[in-house]
Write a structure and sequence with these properties.
This protein has 258 residues and is mainly alpha-helical. It has helices at 2-15, 17-46, 65-77, 94-98, 100-109, 115-144, 149-152, 155-182, 185-209, 214-224, 228-254, and strands at residues 55-58, 61-64. Strand 1 and strand 2 (61-64) form a beta hairpin. Helix 2 packs across helix 6 (115-144), helix 2 packs across helix 10 (214-224) and helix 8 packs parallel to helix 11.
Length: 258
């Protein structure tokens, strides 16, 4: 089964090389853009610096624009590393009507390909893209931060920080994969809208209650407990992938593509 699944995975990845290249370049750019803010967080927490580039004050609460942006990137964007978020269906509202993911699966279902192979190929495609984009994102950060960064926040701590967010992103990213292949374009956009709305609400509550960003709080958490949060995050990601794989297989067996 895995041999056939991997063959189908490689075939599909080859068909999407332009999208992979564009999404990869955008991911690297995003990694470069988050470096100054992450560096500022570390200096603010462990060094003598205490400054942010942009602030706004609303209802006697100070909001750091840089912190909000980086929270949106880590909470909202990194789960999208499981898909080519800068290519094809994600850039057009025609996806709602045309459902390109469903049409692709309809073609596969018309061929002598078992449900097990098709399900496994969806997961392998997701994992291949996720590993590539996540590696590009975090490697860009590692190579771009100032040398003094790791004097304040050791590489081992940063590795824990990275694994924590990778676990979170993979857990949520597996849900996106299920929605792509198990539902339709309309549900995909509704899901993205709901996730965006929930993200905004969560961030507003966090800043209202603690007046600190989620990513900044993660750096503090990892500096005090670098192992337990990572283990919990990785376990959640593994359970998420396993659960979505089972649900997707069941959905592919039941879905009518005609």
């Amino acid at each position: 089964m895995w041999k056939e699944s991997w063959w189908l995975t490689k075939r599909e990845l080859k068909m999407q090389i332009p999208g992979i290249i564009i999404t990869l370049l955008v991911t690297i750019l995003i990694g470069i853009l988050v470096v100054p803010t992450i560096n500022a967080f570390v200096l603010n927490i462990f060094g003598d610096s205490a400054s942010y580039a942009n602030r706004i004050i609303f209802d006697n609460h100070t909001f750091n624009i840089d912190s909000i942006i980086i929270d949106i990137i880590f909470l909202g964007l990194t789960p999208s590393f499981s898909t080519l978020f800068m290519w094809g269906p994600y850039l057009s509202f025609r996806t709602i009507k045309e459902d390109p993911f469903g049409k692709r699966l309809a073609v596969y279902r018309s061929l002598p390909i078992s449900t097990n192979v098709l399900t496994a190929s969806r997961i392998l495609v997701m994992l291949s893209i996720f590993v590539l984009l996540s590696a590009a994102f975090y490697l860009t950060i590692i190579l771009s931060v100032p040398a003094a960064f790791f004097d304040y926040f050791s590489f081992n701590y940063f590795l824990s920080f990275m694994l924590f967010w990778i676990g979170y992103a993979l857990a949520l990213g597996s849900v996106i994969t299920y929605i792509e292949s198990g539902t339709n374009g309309k549900v995909l956009f509704i899901f993205l809208f709901i996730i965006t709305l929930c993200l905004i609400i969560v961030l507003l509550l966090v800043y209202q209650i603690w007046e600190v960003g989620v990513v900044e709080a993660t750096i503090l958490l990892i500096s005090k407990s670098p192992i337990i949060p990572v283990i919990a995050s990785i376990i959640c990601s593994i359970l998420g992938v396993i659960t979505m794989t089972k649900l997707l297989k069941k959905r592919l067996l039941e879905r009518d593509y005609l």
